[in-house]
Design brief:
Protein name: F-box domain-containing protein
Order of helices and strands: HHHHEHEHEH
Keywords: GTPase activation, Leucine-rich repeat, Repeat
Largest sheet: 3 strands, parallel
GO molecular function: GTPase activator activity; small GTPase binding
Helix content: 40-55%
Strand order of the largest sheet: 1-2-3
Strand content: 5-15%
Pfam families: LRR_6 (PF13516)
Shape: elongated
Number of strands: 3
Distance between the termini: 46 Å
Number of helices: 7
InterPro entries: F-box_dom, Leu-rich_rpt, LRR_dom_sf, RanGap
C-alpha cells in the first residue's frame, strides 16, 4: 500500500496534470515538504507566471491561502485579484506575503474594498519589497 509520501513522482505528476492553475497555486503548495519539492519541478507550475482569479469572491480567507502560496512561489509575476472582496484583512495577508515574495511584479487589487487600512498594509509592504 502506498501513502502520499511513497507515491512515485511520476504518479504525482499525473495527478497534477488534471488540476487547473488555481489548484496548483493555491491548494497544492505548502501541504508538505515533499509536495513542495515535486511541485517546484513540475513543468506547468514552473511556467505559471500569470494567474487570473478575477471575480471569484475569495474573501479574506482565500486571500490568506493565496498569500501562503506567494511566500514560497518563485514563478508568478502577475496576479489578478480584481473583485474578490478580500477587504482590509485580506490585503494584510497579501501584504505580509509581498515582504518575502521577490517575483510578483503586477498585482491587481481593484474592487476589493480594502479601504485605507488595507491600502496602508500594501504600501508598507511595498516600501521594503524588492
Amino acid at each position: 500500500m502506498h501513502t502520499f509520501s511513497t507515491l512515485p513522482v511520476e504518479l504525482v505528476y499525473r495527478i497534477m496534470d488534471h488540476q487547473n492553475e488555481e489548484t496548483l497555486f493555491c491548494s497544492m503548495q505548502n501541504i508538505c515538504r515533499r509536495l513542495n519539492q515535486i511541485l517546484s519541478t513540475y513543468g506547468r507550475y514552473r511556467k505559471l507566471t500569470t494567474l487570473n482569479l478575477n471575480s471569484n469572491k475569495i474573501g479574506a480567507k482565500g486571500a490568506q491561502h493565496i498569500a501562503d502560496a506567494l511566500r514560497t512561489n518563485t514563478t508568478l509575476t502577475t496576479l489578478d485579484l480584481d473583485y474578490n472582496g478580500i477587504g482590509a484583512k485580506g490585503a494584510k495577508h497579501i501584504a505580509h506575503a509581498l515582504r518575502t515574495n521577490t517575483t510578483l511584479a503586477t498585482l491587481n487589487l481593484r474592487r476589493n474594498e480594502i479601504g485605507d487600512e488595507g491600502a496602508q498594509h500594501i504600501v508598507n509592504a511595498l516600501r521594503t519589497s524588492t
